[in-house]
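Need tokens for this chain, all 753 residues.
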Amino acid sequence: MHKGGYRLEATGKIAVIMPHIVPPMDNELLCGISEALSGYGYDTVLITGLLNVLGDSANDGYSAGLENIYTLLEYAEFDGVVCAAGRFLHPALRDKILDILRRRDIPCVILEHSCEDFDCIYPPQREYIKMITEHLINKHGCRKLYCISGIKGEYSSEERMSGFCDALDAAGISCDGNCLFYGNFWRDEPCRIADEIADGKLEKPDGVVCTNDEMAIAFCNRLIERGLKVPEDVAVTGYDGNFESFFNDPPITTVTGHDYQLGSEAAKRMLEKLGHTDVHIPEYGQHLRIGTSCGCDLSLAVRNSDDNKRLMKNVRRNNQMYAERRYYITADMISKLSGCADVDELMMTTSTIAYLLPNWNTLEICLCRDWSFDLEAPDRFGTEGYSEKMEHRLYLKKCFDTWATGEFSVSKVLPSFDLPHEPMVYVISSMHFKHQIFGYIGMSYDSPYDFLLDEYYVNWCDCVSNGLNMIQNSQYKNYVKEHFASLLTVDTSSGLYNKRGLMENITTFISGCTKNDKKCAAVTMSYERSKEHYELSPLLAIANIFRHSESRDVLLARPKDDVIICLISTDNTKEQHVIDGMLKVISHHFSDTYSGAFHTALDDIAICCSFLDIRNIGNIEKEVDRLIEKASDKAKVLAVNSGNCYSQLQNARRRILESPQLDWNVDDIAHEAGISKSYFQRLYRETFNTSCMDDIINARIERAKRLLENTDRQIGDIAEECGYASGSHFMRQFRQKTGLTASEYRKNAQEKQ
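Here are the structure tokens for all 753 residues:
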């Protein structure tokens, strides 16, 4: 262990945590760090969320997805971390990162933010704000001055405000609260103050010191919009030395160089923590960059200063980057990447547009092993952190060689770290769709000035991530389609094929029987009273038995709620043998699995068997329908014979036979039994082996026989007494049933007596 409890193991990687990259200040900060570290053989690994958001906007899905990259610190193996904590606008995110670093046994240097347990570095902001304020006082004679700083109570804000007050005190100018303003280092507060000056709500000052260039630019432009002149009416200065301030009209007088120096000092502190002694870092120094916003004349000598030459070099470099991009717009990238069928195709397509990000040495895409959502629960996906094992899906070199290593530990961050190379700068950023985490992108560069992490870079990354989102949406669409198709062919309660599923598969099954020279036996099982007697239908229990023992020789289906059909490829030639074999299997599993839960179920299940004509496949559906109906009818008979319907049928028949002369009507009889006419007629025939009407006719004829044999009554009277309204109708039916006329029947009966 190092002194202070740090790890001795070396990876040769120093992580730099920054919320975004704003050229040239952030590039210079990184350059100060990387140039110092590279001299000692260390890579600089920039981990950035690319956006620096305020307040609650940090909690939206897109921002959360970008900022998830900072959780990589939980796993990554770095020798140390430099965190630009003071540049995070959202305190909760900054505190989250610092909490991660506290839990890690790793040396840290914190920039521009005061924090316990860490080595914190601040640039001499107070000194240089004092310097630029004195420039307004001494060079331009400003006596009434305002200062616009950042967040009240924040260290950098107060340091810069103190530098302003120091200059006023040194010049004997009163410094009270009326000349001090706080904002958030952004454009809204300076614009408000400019409006109040233009409206006369605030006394017009001689000069305004803005403690960063963004505020200075916004303040100048709003004053000019409101009709005031800069610097004639109000002199303005900034602090940072960014691109916009240099090209603003008027150019902003500002302070440059502090970011590079801050980075160099951070690298020096880190190297010392890692055990390096006598670390020598060249000083770059801070100085004024004169513009015209303060009232100075922008002379040729100033324009040709070393600082401005350096700034122009960076401007030309960035303009070149933008020029390389102008022929390819985001819409084209989306079009290319949104149509990929799978991840492999997406990675190949990504490699073809990688050139749109200039100056990189290597490009890598690493995906979480579980990057896609759960197809059965699309709302369930990763929203924070990374998987312990990552997938290395793409590695590109300048020469466009491609390869990937497969799985690797997330602690390694990028597999290419282990390859021999000169010290480089790496950029690691998030791959995500809204707040769904896919993984991250890693790119290496020779210098921080080689990359421009602007909205175009963000769009490029978003296009690749959107391609992943399209792939998983396509996968889900196919899943839903297949699932829906399955629902169309599968009975959901039993898990067997429904009628549609049976007919879609029956031809293939029968063809298999033919090929193997076997018969196709269709066993239908039907049960009528499952809801009345058992919580679990015996048919569903049978379905469960056969579903788990299903083979290529068996095709199961539930074409109706009360019917199961089982197609069997068999060598048996007798239907009863097939039934007996099935009953044996069912009985065994009923006793073993259901422990007597269905005591009499098998007796109540109607089982029919028929061999399908495999030579006449065209009529198979009709044959199946016939078997289904047969099994259903048989089950109903079983239900009747074992239930209340049977006694109702018996009672109806007894009354018919006792009083056939009554005006019997089948509709009325069925209604009394609580059964439809057609069902009543079918049950009656199946129960008594005759129709209800035949029973009525036969009973009437039998009554007529007795009256003919034992009385001398007229035939017409006998017909009426037996329930016939017409004598001719009686005579016709009597002859049909007996083969004799009523007179002939009476004569024969008398002769026998």
